[in-house]
């Protein structure tokens, strides 16, 4: 027994919601599209989980952050899917896929067939057990990848107010969850193996600014070491974290954010893989012409980087690759290759930063670090490769994005440092509305809502 659809989206995360909206806007007929998700809720904006969802006061809750509110578009509630004839198969695990036969077999034994499949399976959180550390299944050890994880984290935080938390991992999850724990009046020790936080994006100078800010909020840093074991009480709760350097950290709760791994298992041996994900072309099409991959699971060519294949673990990539795949499916003759500008952002406490492009080449910092109004440019072979800005206006973020997109020529590094943001505005002044810089009014956007609400 089974069901058949023209289009099936496998996975119910951010990419699935944006793909669904694009299908509807392109006139898909009722009954043609199915979304299969292991979660029990309609697709939602995952960035909210490490930000608004964890707030102690007026926290974000569904349905407020269903997709596609992340770019100020329609909010796709379960009713929206019903109204547009989209089948939602919730709480369902697919245990095998056959791309030759175009079928998916669920854990309940149902076969779902398709003509076109979009893989949006995302990624899973890496567990400490994968690095030889046992015991992260304790009730007060938390990971954060989905709504169930976030709900559990909130429950644990509420029981630990005034207590001690150990955060493991120096990336996005570590940075954003540490801020949330502090706001929930929990004392935090942040542990990671690197020399500074956010090593994949921040320079040492940029990281130093954020680390000093976190210290002013009471956060204790332990760098250059890893967790090796836990101490537990008779009920199985973790009471202390043991580090490789021998230190013992009392803990009422632990939050782990040590990276993710793309969910490619169903398609190993059936589709080409690269960079830890499913390799696709510029139209998000895999090595099987009936299968597309989007979001965290997709490794796709970046025009800005000479078509180097990258797998980008960020919500902006999920949104835009999903929409592009649907465009390529429904209008193949008029849809070219995706021309994507890599974009990352975060918000913690009163701080907010955005990064565009690639952090390769020689770096130049600019602005006033003491006031929190600063940024950085990365330059390679005389061209602007990447740009970072803390506490910018919409117009300023748009300006640095445009400068990176154009791979602006840089002739004098010292001059670039002195010009700072002015360099970005000078690159294409006729194509960026300066708004607040000129008259205090907000200008129009050339990229839509790059900030997002999450």
Describe the 3D structure.
This protein is α/β, with parallel strands linked by helices. It folds into 3 domains: 2-124 and 261-330, 3-Layer(bba) Sandwich (FAD/NAD(P)-binding domain); 128-258, 3-Layer(bba) Sandwich (FAD/NAD(P)-binding domain); 350-439, 2-Layer Sandwich (Enolase-like, domain 1), CATH 3.30.390. The protein contains 10 helices and 28 strands. It has helices at residues 14-25, 78-83, 147-158, 172-183, 204-216, 315-330, 394-405, 413-419, 421-427, 436-439, and strands at 2-4, 7-10, 33-36, 87-89, 94-98, 103-106, 111-113, 116-119, 123-125, 141-142, 164-168, 187-192, 220-223, 227-232, 238-243, 248-250, 253-256, 260-262, 273-274, 277-279, 291-293, 298-302, 308-310, 343-348, 351-357, 362-368, 373-380, 383-390. The chain has a 5-stranded parallel sheet. Helix 1 links the parallel strand 2 and strand 3 (33-36). Helix 1 (14-25) runs parallel beside helix 6 and helix 7 (394-405) crosses helix 9 (421-427). The longest helix has 16 residues, at 315-330. Mean pLDDT is 93; it is low at 432-454.
């Amino acid at each position: 027994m089974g069901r058949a659809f023209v289009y099936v989206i496998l996975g119910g995360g951010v990419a699935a919601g944006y793909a669904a909206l694009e299908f509807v806007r392109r006139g898909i007929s009722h009954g043609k599209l199915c979304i299969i998700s292991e979660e029990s809720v309609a697709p939602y904006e995952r960035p909210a989980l490490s930000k608004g969802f964890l707030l102690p006061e007026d926290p974000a809750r569904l349905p407020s952050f269903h997709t596609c509110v992340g770019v100020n578009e329609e909010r796709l509630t379960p009713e929206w899917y019903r109204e547009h004839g989209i089948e939602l198969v919730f709480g369902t695990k697919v245990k095998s896929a056959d791309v030759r036969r175009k079928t998916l077999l669920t854990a309940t034994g149902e076969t779902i067939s398709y003509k076109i499949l979009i893989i949006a399976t995302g990624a899973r959180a890496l567990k400490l057990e994968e690095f030889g550390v046992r015991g992260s299944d304790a009730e007060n050890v938390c990971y954060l990848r989905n709504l169930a994880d976030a709900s559990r984290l909130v429950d644990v935080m509420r029981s630990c107010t005034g207590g001690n938390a150990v955060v493991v991992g120096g990336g996005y999850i570590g940075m954003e969850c540490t801020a949330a724990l502090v706001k929930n009046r929990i004392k935090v020790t942040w542990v990671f193996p690197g020399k500074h936080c956010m090593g994949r994006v921040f320079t040492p100078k940029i990281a130093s600014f954020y680390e000093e800010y976190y210290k002013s909020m009471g956060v204790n840093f332990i760098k250059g070491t890893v967790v090796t074991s836990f101490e537990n009480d008779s009920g199985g709760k973790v009471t202390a974290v043991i580090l490789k350097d021998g230190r013992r950290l009392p803990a009422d709760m632990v939050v782990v954010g040590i990276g993710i791994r793309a969910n490619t298992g169903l398609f190993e041996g059936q589709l080409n893989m690269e960079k830890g994900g499913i390799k696709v072309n510029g139209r998000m099409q895999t090595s099987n012409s009936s299968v597309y991959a989007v979001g965290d699971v997709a490794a796709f060519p970046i025009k800005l980087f000479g078509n180097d294949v990258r797998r980008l673990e960020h919500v902006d990539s999920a949104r835009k690759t999903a929409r592009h795949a649907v465009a390529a499916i429904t209008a193949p003759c008029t849809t070219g290759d995706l021309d994507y500008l890599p974009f990352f952002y975060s918000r913690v406490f009163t701080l907010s930063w955005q990064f565009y492009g690639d952090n390769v080449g020689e770096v130049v910092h600019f602005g006033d670090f003491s006031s929190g109004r600063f940024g950085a440019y990365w330059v390679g072979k005389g061209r602007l490769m990447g740009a970072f800005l803390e506490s910018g206006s919409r117009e300023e973020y748009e300006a640095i994005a445009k400068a990176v997109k154009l791979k602006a020529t840089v002739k004098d590094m010292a001059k670039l440092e002195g010009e700072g943001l002015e360099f970005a505005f000078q690159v294409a002044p006729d194509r960026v509305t300066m708004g607040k810089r000129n008259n205090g009014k907000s200008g129009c956007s050339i990229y839509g809502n790059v900030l997002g609400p999450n």
